[in-house]
Design brief:
By secondary structure, this protein is an alpha/beta fold. The longest helix has 26 residues, at 30-55. The two termini are 39 Å apart. The model is unreliable at 1-10 (pLDDT under 50). Pfam families: Alpha-amylase.
């Protein structure tokens, strides 16, 4: 983001240094203090600059800044020595997360392993799979049934007691770290549960905590904001505000029981920075920053992706560089593709979900046409140095069709109509559909809808009993081949690697009936895991195929990092792209059609005749072109002619 939005004055170093000198809880002697002072010298200017941008109109902003830095110093001195050693290792290898060995897994603790101790028992399997990154879905204290799957947090410092304790989470993080696996958790920082202590005290009328939220005495200001703010979950409540029992109104972007935090108050920034540093000191290495686009509100705007949202992220980063230097941020922004990339920066979110690649992979599977996906990879894939995509086939969430209408229009595709087609296709309301998805937030008034379902059910595996020559298995492997080979960190929703199916019993669980996303959050599929080493079963074929891809990726340096160059195949059914490196270029071809497809010799004439199939090691001659079977892919090491 350009650094020209505001002109700021010299940072108030003397004010902050005086506060540090006077702070009773800060030890200002020895090497730990010296280490903090060195980082203070390196990063304070950025933090002060951003803090003044955000809060400079307040007369007390310097005092808040001084208190924030004192809290950072105290948090650093509480940071365990083994985490400080991790900080040093990551400082020496800042691109560690771009390694070709990186592989992510994501799960709900209770659904995958019952509790944290059960999850620790699965570490041997995680190492078998090759995980280096484990994302645990929200596991902090949240009220039932109004938990929104854990996203309505009532305490950032307490684990849901059904799952375990904070001490057990800290021990799990240490065990994972010993096995080379980084712990990732969600940081829900746009809102809290209405049962969080801050919200309860605000509801009781304590002015300090009323200022933590957007609370108004009547509908005057809510009506003014809602003229420009879109509805997110209209089925839950219309607009963006909900009534409180005493007649006041509070901002709740998502659900009635999730109250948005007021970041125009610097006390909220300080409070959330404290929660963030607490989690970092438990051994969390990456925070998924939830709903980043919504964190700043301004009257007369859509209140999404405003410049101040970026300044907040940068300021939180500066806080981490002071007190938890190795902590990374992952962005979650399901918005227009041009907005998604605005959050990806070494100073904001170093890694980010890649929702466009995910959505267009499913789009290509439905249409058997790879042009939109190829266009996205060529135009929207490459990122700044020091950052990486997290590529996934599906997540815990629904699938929304996030492609840009203007991109689709270049192929004569009407975006609105195309989304309606995709929704019909993936809920099996279109002739010839293979998918078994469930609609989520179906809005007949606007035509909006998203799709719930596991990878296997969406790919048509529900009626398959033997691996044989199953197009469903091929679709699953084809989709994962894109996520694994395009660069960044591939992420698997755990259980998908053995073809877990939809859980149609989700509606019988308390609090889940109205949220179809629980269909794609099944419990641990023990029987499918038991067959993972039997290649004659669908689960064994999927598992073996994924393991083979991951092994090739690990030994192929061209597939590390992010750099990707488009490659036009001259065939709308065949996706192509290139991953260049020192040995040559890996050319990847993927056939999304149900029929064999040919790539002509002329199309491949920019390469020498002989190439190497990275899966088999065999020489592949390009002089006659290449014919790919249905839903098959090739990774070729080639050389420019």
């Amino acid at each position: 983001m350009p650094d020209d939005a505001l002109t700021v004055n010299q940072p108030p170093r003397d004010h902050v240094l005086a506060a540090l000198e006077a702070a009773p809880g800060v030890d200002r002697t020895g090497p730990e203090w010296e280490a903090f002072r060195q980082r203070f010298d390196a990063h304070f200017g950025e933090l002060a600059n951003l803090f003044e941008r955000l809060y400079g109109e307040r007369g007390d902003w310097r005092d808040h800044l001084a208190q924030l830095v004192v809290e950072c110093a105290a948090s650093w001195q509480r940071r365990p020595s083994e985490l400080k050693e991790l900080d040093a290792r990551r400082d020496a290898n800042p691109d560690w997360f771009q390694s070709g060995r990186m592989l992510g897994g994501v799960c709900y603790v209770d659904r995958y392993a019952e509790d944290l101790e059960g999850l620790r028992a699965r570490i041997p399997y995680f190492t078998e799979l090759g995980l280096t990154y484990l994302h645990l879905m929200p596991l902090f204290l949240a009220p039932e049934p109004n938990s929104d799957g854990g996203y309505a947090v009532s305490s950032y410092r307490e684990v849901n007691p059904r799952l375990g304790t904070m001490s057990q989470l800290r021990e799990l993080a240490a065990d994972l770290r010993e096995h080379g696996i980084s712990l990732v958790v969600d940081f829900i920082f746009n809102h809290t549960s209405n049962e969080h202590e801050w919200a309860r005290r605000a509801a009781a009328g304590e002015q300090e905590f009323e200022d933590y939220f957007w609370i108004f005495p009547d509908r005057t200001m809510p009506d003014a904001y809602e003229r420009t703010v879109r509805e997110i979950f209209p089925d839950d409540h219309p607009g963006s505000f909900v009534p409180m029992p005493d007649g006041r109104w509070v901002w709740a972007t998502f659900h009635t029981f999730q109250w948005d935090l007021n970041y125009s108050n610097p006390a909220v920034f300080r409070a959330m920075a404290g929660e963030m540093l607490f989690l970092a000191n438990q051994g969390v290495e990456i925070l998924r920053m939830d709903a980043v686009a919504f964190i700043w509100k301004q009257l007369g705007t859509v209140c999404e992706s405003l410049p101040e949202a970026h300044w907040l992220l940068r300021a939180f980063n500066a806080v981490c560089r002071l007190a938890a230097p190795s902590l990374l941020f992952k962005s979650e922004a399901i918005v227009h593709p041009d907005e998604v990339v605005q959050y990806i920066d070494p100073a904001e979110c170093q890694i980010s979900y890649n929702p466009l690649e995910m959505a267009l992979t499913w789009e290509a599977l439905a249409t058997r046409d790879a042009r939109l996906l190829a266009q996205a990879l060529e135009r929207r894939h490459n990122l700044p140095d020091g950052t990486a995509w997290v590529n996934y086939v599906r997540s815990h969430d629904d699938i929304g069709w996030t492609f840009a209408d203007e991109d689709a229009a270049e192929f004569g595709i009407n975006g609105f109509d195309h989304r309606r087609f995709l929704n019909r296709f993936y809920v099996n309301r279109y002739p010839g559909s293979f998918a078994r998805g469930i609609p989520f937030q179906d809005n007949p008034r606007t035509g909006d809808c998203r799709i719930s379902g596991t990878t296997a059910s969406l790919a048509g595996l529900e009626d398959v009993t033997d691996a044989g020559d199953s197009p469903a298995v091929r679709r699953i492997l084809l989709a994962h081949s894109v996520a694994i080979s395009t660069g960044g960190i591939p992420l698997i929703y755990l259980g998908d690697e053995v073809g877990q199916l939809n859980d149609y019993g989700y509606a019988d669980e308390p609090g889940h009936g109205a949220d179809s996303r629980w269909v794609n959050r099944p419990h641990y599929p023990a029987e499918r895991y038991a067959h993972r080493n039997d290649p004659w079963t669908p689960e064994g074929a999927i598992y073996a195929g994924l393991k083979k891809m991951l092994a090739v990726r690990e030994r192929t340096p061209e597939l590390a990092g992010n750099r990707l160059i488009g490659f036009g195949t001259g065939n709308r059914h065949v996706l192509g792209y290139q991953r260049p490196g020192e040995r040559g270029v890996v050319v990847i071809l993927a056939n999304f059609s149900d029929e064999p497809q040919h790539v002509t010799p002329l199309t491949l004439s920019g390469f020498t005749t002989a190439s190497t199939d990275l899966f088999t090691g065999q020489t592949i001659l390009l002089g006659d072109g290449i014919t790919l079977p249905p839903q098959e892919f090739l990774w070729l090491l080639a050389h420019a002619a």
